[in-house]
Amino acid sequence: MNPLVVAIAVGSLFAVGGCARDASGVAQMTRAADPSVKVPKAGYQSVSSGTVTYMPVGPKGWEELNRRVGPKT
Fold first, then answer.
1. What are phi and psi of 8, to 5 degrees?
2. How far is the C-alpha of 30 from the C-alpha of 22, rounded, in Å?
3. Residue 4: C-alpha distances to residues 7, 11, 56 (Å)
4. pTM value?
5. 46: number of CA atoms within 13 Å, CB side?
6. Is the separation of the CB atoms in 30 and 36 below 8 Å?
7. pLDDT digits (tens, 9 = 90+) for 9-18
8. DSSP-assigned states of every residue in the chain
């Protein structure tokens, strides 16, 4: 058989297989309209919660900064 024909046949199978419909989500979509399903209540959380204020500080000497970030001996 001609290799070109085989390559075209295999390529078309992959192309058509990619268009196949997945029916696994149909049941989930019908359950979404069911009013008896229990869902957690949505809570409010401020968008600025957990933020930290960074106030300017005075300059420190380079020796002290080097000791703070350097290896502990």
1. -65, -40
2. 15
3. 5, 10, 71
4. 0.28
5. 4
6. no
7. 888 877 777 6
8. --HHHHHHHHHHHHHHHTT---GGGHHHHHHTT-TT---PPPPP--TTTT-----------HHHHHHHHSPP-
